[in-house]
User: Fold these one by one.
Assistant:
Number 1:
Amino acid sequence: MQHLKAIRFVSSFCILFSGAAMAQQPGSSLTLTIDTRKTYQTIDNFGASDAWAAQFAGNWPDAKKNEIADWLFSLDTTANGQPKGIGLSMWRFNLGAGSTQQGAASGIRDEWRRAESFLDSNGNYNWTRQAAQQWFLKAAQQRGVKSFLAFYNSPPVPYTKNGKAFAGVKGVSNIEPSKYEAFADYTVQSIKGLQRHAGIRFDYLSPINEPQWDWSDGGQEGCPYTNEEIAAVVKVLSAKMKKAGLSTKLLIAEAGHLKYLLKDDDKPGKGNQLADLFDPKSAHYVGGLPLVAPVIAGHSYFSTSPFATGVALRKELADKVAAVRGLTFWQSEYCILGDNDGEISGNRKDTGMRSALYVARTIHTDLAVANAAAWQWWLSISAYNYKDGLIYIDKNKTDGNYSDSKMLWALGNYSRFVRPGMQRVEASLPGAPATLLVSAYRKSKSNEVVVVLVNTGKEPQSIGVQAITGKASRPVKQVVAYTTSATEKLAPQRVVGSLTIQPETIVTLVSDLNL
């Protein structure tokens, strides 16, 4: 009996779908195969950041900011099963450098891209600062978010070379080594202060952001670093945080392009970060420090097109990360930027399905090819005319209009259903068109399997859920489909016998496999 029970959980299971696929002959069936024996990464989180608009949106009328928070964090449903939100499981808090207090003298032209710090001019801490951001911290916690990350774009201005939150010399770090300890002390006090005053314990601190870029144009807070400088900063932070009794882990290195995790390319001394920071033989090795998370983080900007090139880069990254014992990869920041080789432009906001499908394709590739254990978005709330927001608001500090986007709900097809601790399992669609993407995830010690299907094509994919086969055929107890399309936002539908995935549609299937 025990032997038979074990077989049931290691067998290969297939959900059979009937109906025509574009690459198949009429009358043939399309079969989705889920092999629960073949496992990949365990999911840590799906997240987004509060930069930059949350510092104002958190001051908006209660009804409006609460609906925004519901869209981002809620796992609740309406009476008919319609999800209220996308259930993010990680929230990123922008620890500002203090450019807001400097006003126009900060040199950052757009005040919405400035950020407060907790330091007063006399060196005292003022915990009423970043109050609107703290509102979103609490709103996330109240709606069930359990993982929080604080990040810097620049060290606070008292510790920078030029007294500003962006570099004075193109591509050169804006903090002197003599200020590393003061920077670390401020960080310790900020993490402790936010825990005392906002009730939030930060699981992670990301001290470095996109160190490869120059950060000298005053467009936002930012600071370049070489790998040697990153290692030096991280060593001081780790020592100070450990001495203070913090359990917060350090996340590095938030590379501005995935290629810099693997090679220097055009940024000597700032690339090849996987080897430089996580190879014990490297002079800049920090992977063994007690508070450094066993994670290498990078951003998927500028690496998604052409599609085949992006896939090849992610395969190489997955292989090299797998070669480092215990290390995982996080995709820690993305929105649609640049021209993407003509596939889609980041200019001009688009709240419809074209951008949503591009985002879904990127999420799929990062998870199913690069083996990302986390996937995080950039601006959760945007006031700009770019494809950078999940939610868009008027550029108004106290009130205004707001709207969701299909990019929000496309992310929700993953974030709401693929929960922390779930493990990606093998999923394939033999004979399916290349425009139909599939990945699958299984909840530990549970029969629940989540399948995300992204149909970027112009043809419907008609499928019928029939049975699960392993050593013997087993019925699917139930399947619920959640659809995001031009007219739907995670619309729920119980699947009985058949389901048609319409063109340019994202569908998440939540199944009890009755194993």
Number 2:
Amino acid sequence: MAKKVKFQRHTLLQRSTSYRHSRPESGQGLIEYVLILALFSLITLVGLNAMGVNLSETFKKISDSLGLSNSPEEQLIEEKTGLQVQVVDPDSQGVPGVQVFVYQNGTTYNDLSGTTDSNGEIYFELGTGTYSFMAFYQLKFFTSGMYTVPDDTLAVIQVSPNDFPVKVVTEDGTGIPDIAVLAFREDGIYTGTQTVTDSFGEANFSMLEGNFKFRAEYQGGEYWSAVYTLPGTSEGVIQTHRQAFPVRVQDLAGNPMEDISVGAYREDETYSGVSGQTGTDGVIQLGLAEGQFKFRAPYMGEIYWSDVVNVHAIGGATFTIPQTSFKVRVVDSKGKGISNVGVYSYREDGTTYVDRYDRTDKDGYVTFTLIQGTFKFRAAYQENDYWSGVVNVPADGEAVIQTGQGDFAVHVVGASGKGIANITVLAYNPGGKYLGILGTTNSEGIAYLSVSNGSYLFKATVNGTEYWSDKITTTQQKSATIQVASQSESQSYIIHLINKTNKPLEGADVYVRDSNDKYTGISGTTNSDGQITVELAPGTYIFRVDYQEESWISSDYDFPGSDPLTIKVPVK
């Protein structure tokens, strides 16, 4: 409500009267002068108005010159209030997204508008006065009645649409859910109305009278209905012709590629949202609408594309990933293949693993399926890594990994440097991990262990005591030495085995144990004379004999008193 605040005003006439009352006689001439001046000013204002001069501004300047500008009679202070506008359908349900315009006194648009919210409502802040409102819905205008501010608080505009379902379907008529559908006039002008299909594939519209058509945005493409005249038609249909479309992925040799992820894209590489994995036959059935598509498959860090095809105009699509078989061989120092070695595949930088791993066969070969490009390979063997050079797949035919494996001599000697026979020698990495590699010293005290290029430690156990070599690198040294007990503490003994008939027992495995029945690490296999040579420190020992899948334990024997020692084994 506007409030009036009164101020005292001194008009030109009041000033003239004041002069007249104060000087009734001599002031007569002054009054006439003022009246003439006022008449002249009026004539001047009329002329200025005819010339297009802003009269209010001109009057203000004149008032300022006369000292009258600070004397208004009254001033209006306007209070603003608000009014809620709701756009509803015939069921009194709010209609969202409708643009509403405000008119004052029912005729004058006051440059104020807005769009209804999800409840079909919008709030306008308005001054005191009379207003009407116009809603623009589906390219038609709907007008409210007249409302007075601040007496009224809610204005209602009713639009009159009709319910009209539009169904988006596949080739067999099955509805497709979650598809955006937009409504257009027959001439292609968008009505501003859109909705999304429900679980049955229906998009439910409220439409006015007229001719309309509808567009579904699906799989990166646009699909149109026919033109429908409303009212008079009960529902609309948009046919996408979606159906299963087979895509086959194969390698260079034409072999099917399984478990390949394939995505469908429009010609402009807009993703359709449809993808899947190929089966054992290399085929994936993709549910696609009709139109132009191409197919994308990421594989081993690369992206491969098919050609553009007209889906459903042809029976299916096939595209090739340039993959082929490639062999890698792991060999020793003499070029002989090494079996059961794990081999890993990498890009040429040696750090990007391409998820290809296998173990070599009896000839040292492993076969990988790889795409065209440059690669290198790593063999993990005897706790060391061995690399191939960079190879070009498939042009280079195969890759070779050289481990440098060969027989490495380990000497087990006493203080005098004399070799000790029948001592088991084990190979370890520098961190102390046993590598599963062992050998037994011969009559010269030498054990040959098959190790590759790398660093190792070797251990021998003699009379229950462990002795170690220094750390050696096989590419820099040809042999290693393990120094055991001094000559004064141990010496060589010949152990002779015979059977029941006093004949030499050949091929028997003999293990030397101490008086506590603990294995000393000393062993050997009897020769044709039934003999082994062992290095023993003074003490008491027991001998276990394994022969023809049977075992036999001897009595205790004291050394050196038992030298030489002949043991009869109760076997034939």
Number 3:
Amino acid sequence: MVNEKNSAFRKYLPYFIFLLMFIYVIWGLVKVQIVEQSEHKQLLNELLGSSDYSRGLRGSIYSSDGVKLAWSEQIPIISMKTYTTEDDARLREFLTTEQIVSIKNTGQAELTWEQAFLLKSIGYETTTIERRKSYGFLYQIIGSVNIDGEGVSGMESVYNDLLKGKVSVSYGVTNPSGSYEQGFIENTGENGMDLQTTINYGLQKFSYDLLTELATPSVIIVSDVKTGDILAMASYPSPEIDMNSLDNISWEKILNDPMKPLLNRAISSTYPPGSAFKVITAFAQLLYGRPNTVTCNGVFTYKDSKGRVTGRYKDWLLSGHGVVDLKKALRVSCNVYFYNAAIDVGADNIAKVARAFYLDQKTGINIPGEVVGTLPSPEWKVENIGENWYPGDTILYGIGQGFLNVTPLQMITLYNTIANRGTFVKPKLLINEEVVSKKILLDIPDPYWDLVIQGLEEVTTVQGSGANAGTAAASFKGFPITVAGKTGTAQVGSGQPHAWFVGFGPSRQPMYSVLVLVEHGESGGHFAAPVARKIFDYMYQNGFFEDIQSNQDAVTSKNES
């Protein structure tokens, strides 16, 4: 009986084992395809999926007259990890020797679009890279990007987040051979935002060309006195090549150039302003002193409280200017008058007026590198030099010399504030940037504004002898619009003086201001003012003063009729 049962068990055991195996296989299939389907599908997609990240092009930077100042281009390239003899034979038919050498040395080469098309047709894969471009003479304003396409200087740096393209992801599912088997999601990176600057390309190029003719470190700034728009900011020298794609040798050459072409002298260098600062001394005397006439014989003699002569200070005109009041002192830039005025009001009051015009602060222009000059005072000298302040320091302070230093942008902003009769306007470089203005920290009566502006008008309009003519009158002779301006000749150690001119026009309906600084240019009247006249001529001939010209034409027509 037992043997019969064992025999029956052995008979059906294979069927039982087969059934268990069948059930296990069925369960395995159900588990993989139904229970764990999502997990295995995710794994398969990870193995066969392809993700591609791309970034849109960087936005362009435009001038106010519609010229591209900085822009990006897609450049086709071929990249090869290995380069065989067969590749060499095939590619030499389509590529130049320089491109072949580049592939051998770096693994890639830039192509023309025609070359990219032809290489694709014979089975080679090409891609594109973004190449940033701009003009070397605009480097101090626009700046440049690094190898990763990120802004590292100028406006490229300040507005990097707005300019750079947005990243997108394209996704596809491939078969094991690597070719696409299913449809895929493709996104194109969104381009960065375009920006429009206040820079007028034509005026900027004209200004830089003028400085190139001078061939010495120098600055031209042109601005809108009401809005603070910078129409031109030329600093010479500038780099002669596009700074976005430099090789190491070119970079080292520019970096070590003794002329410092990377330096934006308009905002990053400070200079004694010389006679261009005399407007501050003039306001200080009007507010805190006793304006009167002075007889200028070419020398100012300073006597101490005991009547002893402790210093003699020369005028720029050794024969003297004769009898001089404040208006004439501005016109002829009489040093003797302003020596007296400085002693009259004292260093503290000169510094107080300068601070009221914000000369102790940066202008706030939105590009990197702006510095602030030195606005001295008796306290400043003790703290920084460890010496007391002497009457000679005050005398030199009155004519914009001594310890005083400013940037060219600070000076043109000062004259914009005078043009606006006490309203400081922050300089700006973007068209749609908000106009920011504030009142100066002094209440100056209208008659004082009138007197100083009249003196500045006479600088460019009153002809005559050296003792009586405006210091820029010869340069502005015949110009149809009255410009209120000031020359400056600033002594610097043993070298030749710096030459300044800064002014605005029309003087009674101010629109634009112009500043010219020529390092070691000797005389503001002889070297800076003629350059400023050329700038004003260019603007007049190219319609910048169109509204004024239309009014003048209307008045002329009415008078003739």
Number 4:
Amino acid sequence: MPGDRKMARAIIGPGGGFVFAGCLMVLALGTRASDYEAPGFATGLPVGGIAMLWLLLRGARVLSWDGALLLVVGVGANLVLGSKPELAVALAGAVLVQTVLGVLLLRLWCPDLWGCGGQRPLDRPRVLARFGVAMVVGTAAGAALATASWTLLGDGDLDLGGVLWFGRNACSAFIVVTFGLLLGQRITSRRPRPRLLSEATWAELAAAVLFTVGMYGLAFSFETLPLAFPLLAATVWIGLRFSTLLSATHSFLAGVATIFLTMTGIGPFAAVDRVEIGYLLAEFYIATLVVTGLGLSTGRDEREALAAELRRTKEEADYQGSVRQAVIGSMNEGLFVLDAAGALLLHNAAAAEIFGLAEQELTCELLAARSDRWADGTPMVDGDRPSSRALLGETVRDAEILVRNGDQPDRVVAVSAMPLPRDELRARARALVLFRDTTIEHARREELAAFAGVVAHDLRNPLAAIDGWTEMIADELDTGGLDAELAREFVSRVRSSSRRMRELIRDLLTHATSSARDLEVSCVDVGSLVAEVASGRHAEKNVTCGPVPPLLADRVLVRQVLDNLIGNALKYVAPGVEPRIAVHGCSGKLGFVTIRVIDNGIGIPEGEREQIFDEFHRAHYRDYEGSGLGLSIVRRIINRHDGTITALANPDGPGSVFELTLPAYDG
């Protein structure tokens, strides 16, 4: 209520109570010439509406100065109308009771309405119904008290006085309170305000006004003809096409005009034999206009509000749908939703890509046909499928399956599936299935398992040798027969085994870091690196290097490449043959440099020139020691530079040619 009270006082000012009091006195003076025999029941005085609007806008309490002033004005008005003093007090009390009761009921039943405690306008039929009932109950209570007061204190027969009281006050409450609250809410509401004309135009409003004036002129000019019914057409027009405020304004002006013309003896209602019957008919006619107009306009307002809310909801749903599609479409993981009937309800492009299908080709049957084995190759039973388990309510995490893509290599895919809310309309379970391509991860795990096996095997051999030779040293020491020459032999063997282990560990560390280290590219002089590697291996006489264009590469990693290739060329030579290694290069195509490392070694078997780049592959494992990681490291480094490496036979004699490409430096 504080907000309403502040806004109301902004409209009517601090002296608003006296304004309302003055209005009531003026209206009392204007209607004191009524022909009705019961003073205080004069049909033209709209006490009910003005009094209720007064207390609502003033935010008055049950016991307040406004209520006391209303009582005083009521007594004065009834005295002016000719009532006896005691009857004037009783009738004024009836007005105060009906006003307070109506206001309390409005605040109780319509708390969201502006003027009654909230900020909303009168824009819904169900609120209009509560609004009307509150005023009817209040005025009915006032009519009952007024009738009882006249019966006890009045003179003569009241006849229709109670009904006239109810009709006059209920009619004025409908007209005045509705118009006042709607106007107040419009004035005090923040901009932007709803359009006053709703969907109509000013031209249509002018036409409706002219039609109303014409119909009133027609209906009130021919008093003996029942032509009041066309007036409803104007009310319907205004109610259907214009805002509730304009509808209330139309009803207010039409009601004032009807009462004024009837009181001055003009129109069909004044032509009735009994004046009180004419007033009563006019009042209920006005009530019909008000209820019809407000019912239509509030119904239209509610429909417009619902339509606007529907549009907002649709826009929000469309936006959420576009966001969902964008999120799902941008996922690298495959996603689809299916139901228990085998219908594929939703999927993304990544799912089609993982299964090697076009999006329009995706069906549950085809997906099942391409994913009927676990990652280890064992067949999959339908009931064990992650999607089948999710449809039964189970959540599955990262189950690895094998996906066959026709002509493409098979993929290993990690599948997670979880149940979704059940489709109650079709009585079907639903499930969400996510696919993540783990082919590389799976291969790395397999590689790691093989790596661990080879490491365990290769480390075990030098350790066993060291253990054996140290045992022999200990045995010789125990017997006291260890001579210097034998001791040197034993120590040499131990050192050889430890060197073998050290080299293996070095290769393992290089292998582990060759694909993880960030590239630091710069201009690389291959000739200086070749000289550095040859010097480090004390093979300056065995290695020659011709002109090689500068590279744009990581110097440390390129040195590892050259060290591995030159080291292998120095090691893999026939007994009694002095190794000869030649390095030269030339500019290749598309900004790359082609480098060839040529040796005179034992060569590579023809069927193994590609396999030698695999981890732990050793073409001459029986005759030469090694970890089988050197060339694998070389290929990783070359691949990281977007280059290539190929092993070829030496066309000029025994040995091999390693041809590799690396980016050229164009500075």
